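Example for tutorial group B:
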C-alpha cells in the first residue's frame, strides 16, 4: 500500500504551519469554502512530479503577503519501506526535491509515488478544448511511466524553439533539423505512452464491476493519423515545414492529439452527456487508473478527489467510497461538511479546516 503517513506544511498557500500524522485509511477534509481544504490536496499532489493539481508556479504557492518561500515534508510509506520526502521553494525559485535527505529529481520522486487527482476544473473536460484532455491523459500516462514527464518537457522545449523560427520566417533547413529530430524522438515516446495508458484504462474498466459507467476512449489526431514511428514523424515535420511557415506554428505531432470519450452504455459522446454523467465518467476513469496501477505495481496510487461529492447522488457517493476502500487506496477527499462522507464511517480519518484571520488551521478529529 502507498500512503502519505505524515505531512508538514510551512508557509504553503493559506497554511502558516501544519503538522499532520496519519494512517493509510482515506482522509476526509471538510470545512467552509475558502478555508484551505484544496490547498492541502495541492500540497499532497507535490509529492509527485510536475506542478501539482493547480499547475501553479512555485512562487504562487508561497503564503502571502510574506512570500518567504514554502516547505513540505512527509513520509511516503510504500509497502514495508518508508521514504522521507521534502520539497520546497525559496524566493520563487523552482521547487527542489530531497528523498531521504538527498537531492533528487522529480522523475525519481515519480518512481516511488503515484498520485492521481480529480478536481472541479476537470468537470468541463469533455466540453472544453483538447489541451485539457491531453493534460488529463498525460497525468495518467505519467502515473504508469515516470519518464513520460521528461519526454513531454523535451518535446515542448524543442517545439517552442521551432515555432520561434517559423514565426521569424527562417527558411534555412539546417536550423530545423536538430529540433525536428528532438521533437520526433520525444513525440513518438509521448504518443506511445498515451496509447498504452488508453489501453490500460480500457482493460481496467472492462474487468471491473462498478457502479460507474464505462467510458469508451479513443485517441485521435486533429488531422489524419499520427506518424507511426519517430522517423515518420521527423519526415512529416520536414515535409510540412512550408505549411508551418505559412501559419507560424507546428501542425503535426502529439500536441495535435485529442482524447475522445463516449458513455458506452448509451452510445453517447461524453460532451453530450449530462453534468452528472460527465462527472461519473471522470470518476470511472480515475478509479480505472487506480485499479490498473494496483494490478501492475502492486499498490494503488494516492487519490486526490476535490469536492468529489458534487454532482454525485447519495447512491453513487456510497458506491465510490466502497470502491475506494476495496482498492485499499489512501484517498484524500474534500467537502463542505462531514455529512457528505457519512457512508465512510470509521473507514476514514477526518480533518477539519477553518479560516482564522486569513490563516488556515487544521484539526484532526
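The residue assignment follows.
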Amino acid at each position: 500500500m502507498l500512503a502519505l503517513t505524515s505531512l508538514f506544511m510551512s508557509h504553503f498557500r493559506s497554511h502558516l504551519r501544519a503538522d499532520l500524522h496519519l494512517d493509510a485509511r482515506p482522509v476526509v477534509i471538510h470545512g467552509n469554502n475558502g478555508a484551505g481544504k484544496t490547498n492541502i490536496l495541492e500540497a499532497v499532489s507535490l509529492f509527485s512530479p510536475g506542478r501539482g493539481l493547480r499547475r501553479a508556479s512555485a512562487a504562487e504557492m508561497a503564503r502571502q503577503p510574506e512570500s518567504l518561500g514554502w516547505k513540505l515534508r512527509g513520509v511516503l510509506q510504500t509497502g514495508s519501506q518508508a521514504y522521507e520526502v521534502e520539497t520546497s521553494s525559496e524566493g520563487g525559485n523552482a521547487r527542489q526535491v530531497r528523498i531521504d535527505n538527498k537531492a533528487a529529481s522529480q522523475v525519481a520522486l515519480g518512481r516511488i509515488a503515484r498520485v492521481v487527482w480529480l478536481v472541479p476544473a476537470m468537470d468541463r473536460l469533455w466540453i472544453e478544448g483538447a489541451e485539457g484532455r491531453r493534460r488529463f491523459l498525460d497525468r495518467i500516462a505519467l502515473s504508469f511511466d515516470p519518464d513520460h514527464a521528461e519526454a513531454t518537457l523535451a518535446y515542448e522545449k524543442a517545439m517552442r524553439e521551432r515555432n520561434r523560427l517559423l514565426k521569424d520566417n527562417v527558411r534555412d533547413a539546417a536550423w530545423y533539423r536538430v529540433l525536428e529530430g528532438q521533437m520526433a524522438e520525444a513525440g513518438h515516446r509521448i504518443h506511445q505512452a498515451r496509447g498504452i495508458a488508453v489501453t490500460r484504462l480500457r482493460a481496467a474498466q472492462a474487468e471491473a464491476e462498478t457502479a460507474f459507467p464505462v467510458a469508451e476512449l479513443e485517441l485521435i489526431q486533429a488531422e489524419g493519423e499520427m506518424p507511426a514511428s519517430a522517423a515518420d514523424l521527423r519526415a512529416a515535420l520536414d515535409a510540412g515545414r512550408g505549411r508551418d511557415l505559412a501559419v507560424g506554428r507546428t501542425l503535426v505531432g502529439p500536441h495535435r492529439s485529442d482524447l475522445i470519450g463516449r458513455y458506452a452504455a448509451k452510445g453517447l459522446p461524453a460532451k453530450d452527456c449530462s453534468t452528472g454523467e460527465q462527472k461519473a465518467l471522470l470518476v470511472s476513469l480515475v478509479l480505472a487508473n487506480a485499479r490498473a496501477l494496483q494490478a501492475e505495481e502492486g499498490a494503488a496510487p494516492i487519490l486526490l478527489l476535490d469536492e468529489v461529492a458534487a454532482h454525485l447522488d447519495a447512491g453513487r457517493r456510497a458506491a465510490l467510497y466502497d470502491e475506494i476502500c476495496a482498492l485499499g487506496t489512501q484517498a484524500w477527499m474534500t467537502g463542505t461538511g462531514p455529512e457528505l462522507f457519512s457512508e465512510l464511517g470509521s473507514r476514514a480519518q477526518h480533518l477539519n479546516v477553518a479560516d482564522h484571520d486569513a490563516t488556515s488551521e487544521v484539526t484532526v478529529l
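The mean pLDDT is 94. Compare this with the pattern of hydrophobic and polar residues in the output above.
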